[in-house]
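2.7 Reproducibility. Because tokenized structures are sensitive to small changes in the input, we list the exact sequence used for MADF domain-containing protein, including any N-terminal residues retained from the expression construct. No trimming or masking was applied before prediction.
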Amino acid sequence: MDWNEQNTITFIEMYEQKPILWCAKHPQYYNKIKRNDAWEEIAKEIGFSADECRKKMTGLSSAMRREKAKIKKSFGTGKGADEIYTSSWYAYNHMKFLWDKNTPCQTTTSVSIK
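Resulting structure tokens (single pass, no recycling of outputs):
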């Protein structure tokens, strides 16, 4: 079996359903055994090895970062709406759940400011 657009989209949807793999706030995110089990479940269901799935997601994540960078770079002073980059990559809308994955959380402070 080969990675085609439909297999890839199905894979992305399965990955999204396993926040243990992509959400650092998930309680089991740092548990390597549980994360490996999640990869094995996806691999079994889609018909690829867990390593192939990991490599595919690495490639997809890289492509998503490139698309995100193109979009951010296209914004600027004096640019018209028709000059803003819109992605035509087939997996872009399916990968949007990862858009803010690395945004830092609000922090709380124990120091009172007067």
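The first helix runs from residue 5 to 16.
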